[in-house]
UniProtKB/TrEMBL annotation, chain A:
Record carries keyword Nucleotide-binding: yes
Species of the source: Nocardioides islandensis
Family membership: Belongs to the GatB/GatE family. GatB subfamily.
GO aspect biological process, one term: glutaminyl-tRNAGln biosynthesis via transamidation
Binding partners and assembly: Heterotrimer of A, B and C subunits.
Signal peptide from the UniProt entry: none
Protein name: Aspartyl/glutamyl-tRNA(Asn/Gln) amidotransferase subunit B
Function, as annotated: Allows the formation of correctly charged Asn-tRNA(Asn) or Gln-tRNA(Gln) through the transamidation of misacylated Asp-tRNA(Asn) or Glu-tRNA(Gln) in organisms which lack either or both of asparaginyl-tRNA or glutaminyl-tRNA synthetases. The reaction takes place in the presence of glutamine and ATP through an activated phospho-Asp-tRNA(Asn) or phospho-Glu-tRNA(Gln).
EC number(s) reported in the record: 6.3.5.-
Domain Asn/Gln amidotransferase: 361-508
Length: 509, 522
């Protein structure tokens, strides 16, 4: 484990610069350059053809829906859309790349010069940070390698490697920010908020499943530190000189984005403080231990020998088409947040918590599925946020869907279960035991409202607690709670508490 | 001696004649196909035009064609006429090596679009023809499986890279063949073997399944003995293909009609431009003499001849040898032993990179390695603008030269290749001398225009065939057929029959070996 400087000390000495590269897998029915299906989790190498296997002689054909999605993403990020752009070959050798070049875009991205505003909780309250988008471009995913044997799970030291080309050719959009400067101590929060916002925006556009745990949104964190600019040495150019950066690959949850940024700030600070240089390199993020380790050294000399893909014709989106796509965009995130807050009647604090937990879209979908705003917020920010924190998973990756939450609340409203039983339903959902109704049935969680059983249990409780019964008979109605508790205990929480209370009072007053 | 004569007659017919005979029920596809298989068995030991012969497949396709013909359901005019395919085209179930060790044993799971169209049109596929490795060369000597020999003189090269297809036609081993032309690989072999070859407009014939040499230059086309045969074959393989984004989404012009009209011999109203830069120094005297005769014949047929200048053509070779290696270096990266083809595993505990390196070292020939190195260099950061970028600019200038020339002429003409067939081994160690063979053919590839090579006669000094090249504006392929057929008709009249009739009979040579040692002893 690397030596770290404390976070506060790191920020006393340095100014962090952050850059984020996000790869989004589009949810098109077919791949970027061929007709193969894109379904996740199919048997390895069953969703392939000569083109996505890069067989000799095969040729690519551009997926028009992928281009449309790319344009919509660009527009949603306030980008300019290229009137004419080309694909390019990025040449490098790796066994999971069928052609040993990736068909991507280089100096002619489909979308460029955009921005998006994110809101984070700063030291002096909510703060809006503008993230400038350098570009969003189209490319194809590579295959997926599985390295068997060896200690690291990486190719080095493995006994053998397997490659699944089902993923090869899945359309990707790579979204690259400009360096995000001057955010100081909130830099990890900005990183997380940006990725969360991107996720919500992509969900709203309907262009991707955005499942970070399945790799359909993958984040690379670029970070560098420069000596702290106290304003005394301003050169009036408005430019900041950036330190040497590291690129931390595959930081694949919102929580990890925040942690990885924080970790790299502390690590860079320790290295620089000790007088050593930062190596420009790729680093690997370890979710379990919360640290990064050195990957391959990445110098600027790495040469991908980009050149325009001669097998494809240029992409020249029709202006009218782009304008139609612009007109059909969902509302921008800040407008959406304001509208939802008003619709739901949330306080500013409720709203910030919801956005901060990465649960805005989840709450919205839960409400759409029939729950009240209060109920949706209660479950997601209470019970489910707690579970996510405890198990260190993303709230969206718990295995609980908005439809599940809405159904659980409906069961509570119907009186079929109570809040306590609802928690057990969530246990079942997290464990993958089926739908809420299936779990209630399988675990026998339904509230008992059978008069005979309840009456007998109340009688047992009165018999077992004569002192309490006497107090109630003497008019101390508040003492009823003790008997109700005893009944609930006997009924394992599955009694209708209101009816039990009625029965107790009927029998004793 | 009756039966052999029938066979001999069948192999000497043109594809159009065979198609007529099949339609009239005078012969069967099985007979025609068997005749060519017999011919291959008899002469290919010497010529080595084929890398693979698929007798069983060809005969079964022939039988199916006969069944269709019998019920009046021919799938195309060429249904049942057999064909040979250059080994650069993916053929489902039939090995495809591109003349390289690195693809030894690879059997494609799919058909190239051209091959699929041949099958759909009912042409039995005789086999795959030899070629320079990955189509890099002008002599077919760079095949990893040994050179093809020129049927006119077995000590000489048949041109390249498609020497196998051209030699198969010249040796009567096939009535039709498919070639590919990146810088002249259809036209130059046509010229030096006395056969006809057409490079269609770029995008006119699908490249899907053609193993790319240089994607922006490659074009598949017909290799035949007559202009009409080329038009018939071009019509079968051409036209839009949704699997090739660079294919032209417009109907082909009436190529067969143009060839038939041209054969009537009237070129009045046609302006023929002689390209000043494609002739003179570096061109063999006999080649130039035959070329001038061809121009005179066109004039006699009514054409108006003008001289045109294309000043940037002098940069064509340099431009080509930057663009081609750049694209090729990237295309050939996929041959890494991971998924198909050769795999060489070094001793010890090799990494994936070690296996890739050893396989590419063993699997690629010198010319391929030379071009991968050139292309990798030309694309490198810091050199891109000076080399690849600059070459693309010159390419635009060459295209402008064509546009201007075509304002003054309907077609442009030049000798196809500067010399007749040279001796095997003569230039194999001198890459620059080898590259110069394509001087006249390369400009058409750089700007995508169509071209045909038609035999112009035998050079006086060596008695070997020479060719004349006719170029037309992009998508005006019909013009090369019209002018080509007119010239062909005039020349046939002059010669009193096909030029190939003047070649020595190969079978006799095999049987008696009268003069085999005089050239082929190397």
């Amino acid at each position: 484990m690397s030596e770290l400087l404390s976070y506060d000390e790191a920020l006393e000495r340095f100014d962090p610069a952050l850059g984020l590269e996000v790869h989004v897998e589009l949810n098109t029915a077919s791949k970027m350059f061929c007709g193969c299906p894109t379904e996740f989790g199919a048997e390895p190498n069953t969703q392939t053809c000569p083109t996505c296997l890069g067989l000799p002689g095969s040729m690519p054909v551009v997926n028009e829906i992928a281009v449309e999605s790319a344009i919509r993403i660009g527009l949603a990020l306030n980008c300019e859309i290229a009137e004419w752009c080309r694909f390019a070959r990025k040449n490098y050798f790796y066994p999971d790349m069928p052609k040993n070049f990736q068909t991507s875009q280089y100096d002619e991205p489909i979308a460029f010069n955009g921005w998006t505003d994110v809101v984070v909780e700063g030291p002096e309250g909510p703060q809006t940070v503008r993230v400038d988008i350098e570009r969003a471009h189209m490319e194809e995913d590579t295959g997926k390698s599985l390295h068997v044997g060896g200690a690291t799970g990486r190719i080095h030291g493995a006994d053998y490697s397997l490659v699944d080309y089902n993923r090869a050719g899945i359309p990707l959009i790579e979204i690259v920010t400009r360096p995000i400067l001057g955010t100081r101590e909130i830099v990890p929060l900005v990183a997380k908020a940006y990725v969360a916002q991107l996720r919500d925006l992509l969900l709203g556009l309907g262009v991707s499943d955005v499942r970070m745990e399945q790799g359909s949104l993958r984040c690379d964190v670029n970070l560098s530190l420069a000596p702290r600019d106290d304003g005394s040495e301003s050169d009036n150019t408005g430019r900041h000189s950036l330190g040497t950066r590291t690129e931390t690959k595959n930081v694949n949850s919102l929580r990890s984005v925040e942690r990885a940024v924080r970790y790299e700030v502390q690590r860079h600070a320790a290295v620089l403080t000790s007088g050593r240089p930062i190596l420009q390199e790729t680093r690997h993020w370890h979710e379990d231990t919360g640290i990064t380790t050195s990957g391959r050294e990445k110098s600027d000399a790495e040469d991908y020998r980009y050149f325009p893909e001669p097998d494809l014709v240029p992409v020249a989106p029709d202006k009218e088409w782009v304008e139609r796509l612009r007109a059909s965009l969902p509302e921008p995130p800040h407008e959406r947040r304001a509208r939802l807050q008003a619709e739901w009647g949330f306080s500013d604090l409720d709203m910030r918590d919801t956005v901060g937990a990465g649960a805005l879209g989840l709450v919205e979908a839960t409400i759409a599925a029939g729950a009240t705003p209060q109920a949706a917020r209660k479950w997601w920010l209470g019970e489910l946020a707690r579970r996510a924190n405890e198990t260190e998973t993303d709230i969206s990756a718990l295995g609980v869907t908005p439809a599940h939450v809405a159904r659980v609340q409906a069961l509570v409203d119907e009186g079929a279960i109570n809040d306590k039983l609802a928690r057990q339903v969530f246990d079942g959902l997290v464990a993958g035991e089926g739908t809420p109704d299936e779990i209630v049935a399988a675990r026998g969680l339904a509230i008992v409202s059978d008069e005979g059983a309840l009456s007998a249990a109340v009688d047992n409780a009165i018999a077992a607690n004569p002192d309490v019964a006497d107090k109630i008979r003497d008019g101390k109605v508040a003492a009823a709670g003790a008997l109700i508790g005893a009944v609930m205990k006997e009924m394992k929480g599955q009694a209708d508490a209101a009816r039990v209370r009625e029965l107790v009072l009927e029998k004793l007053t | 001696m009756n039966a052999p004569q029938v066979v001999s007659d069948l192999i000497r017919r043109t594809a159009a004649e065979l198609a007529d005979a099949l339609a009239a029920g005078e012969t069967t596809s099985v007979e025609v196909t068997q005749a060519h298989l017999d011919r291959i068995a008899a002469v290919d030991g010497d010529v080595h035009a084929f890398l693979v012969v698929d007798a069983e497949g060809a005969l079964s396709q022939a039988a199916a064609a006969d069944a269709r013909r019998a019920t009046g359901q021919a799938q195309s005019p060429l249904d049942g006429v057999p064909i040979a395919v250059k080994d650069v085209m993916a053929t489902k179930g039939l090995p495809t090596t591109c003349g390289s060790r690195i693809l030894e044993g690879w059997v494609p799971p799919y058909d190239a679009t051209v091959v699929a169209r041949l099958r759909a049109a009912g042409l039995p596929i005789l086999g795959k023809t030899n070629m320079d490795e990955f189509a890099m060369g002008s002599s077919t000597e760079h095949s990893a499986y040994g050179p093809t020999r020129n049927p006119w003189d077995l000590s000489r090269i048949p041109g390249g890279s498609g020497g196998g297809s051209a030699a198969a036609l010249a040796a009567y081993e096939a009535p039709l063949a498919i070639g590919t032309d990146t810088g002249g690989s259809i036209r130059q072999p046509g010229a030096v073997t006395g056969t006809v070859g057409v490079k269609p407009t770029y995008g006119g014939v699908s490249r899907y399944g053609l193993v790319s040499l240089a994607n922006s230059l490659d074009q598949a086309g017909p290799v035949t003995r007559t202009v009409l045969d080329a038009a018939l074959l071009h019509t079968v393989i051409g036209g839009h293909d949704p699997k090739d984004s660079t294919s032209i989404d417009a109907p082909l012009p009436d190529l067969v009609g143009a060839a038939r009209r041209g054969a009537e011999g009237d070129l009045s109203g046609v302006r023929v431009g002689v390209v000043k830069e494609l002739g003179g120094e570096g061109y063999q005297d006999g080649v130039l003499t035959r070329f001038q005769e061809s121009v005179d014949l066109m004039v006699a047929a009514g054409a108006e001849v003008v001289e045109v200048s294309c000043p940037n053509f002098v940069h064509a070779l340099a431009t080509y040898y930057l663009i081609l290696p750049a694209e090729a270096s990237s295309n050939l990266a996929r041959f890494d032993a991971m998924r198909y083809g050769l795999r060489v595993t070094p001793d010890g505990d090799p990494s994936a990179e070690d296996v890739m390196r050893a396989t590419r070292e063993a699997g690629f020939g010198d010319e391929v390695k030379r071009r991968i190195i050139l292309g990798t260099y030309a694309l490198s950061s810091g050199y891109y603008d000076a080399y690849y970028g600059q070459a693309q600019k010159v390419r635009t200038l060459i295209t402008r030269d064509f546009e201007q020339a075509f304002q003054h002429a309907d077609v442009l003409v030049s000798p196809t290749a500067p010399t007749t067939a040279f001796k095997l081994g003569e230039k194999v160690d001198d890459p620059l001398a080898m590259y110069l063979n394509d001087l006249a053919t390369i400009p058409a590839n750089l700007s995508g225009v169509p071209g045909i090579s038609v035999p112009s006669g035998l050079a006086d000094e060596d008695g070997l065939p020479a060719g004349v090249q006719i170029l037309a504006p992009a998508t005006a392929d019909d013009r090369v057929y019209r002018v080509g057929a007119a010239l062909e008709a005039a020349l046939l009249q002059k010669w009193g029959g096909p030029l190939l009739d003047q070649a020595r009979p190969l079978v006799g040579e095999v049987a008696q070996r009268p003069s085999r040692d005089q050239g082929a002893s190397s």
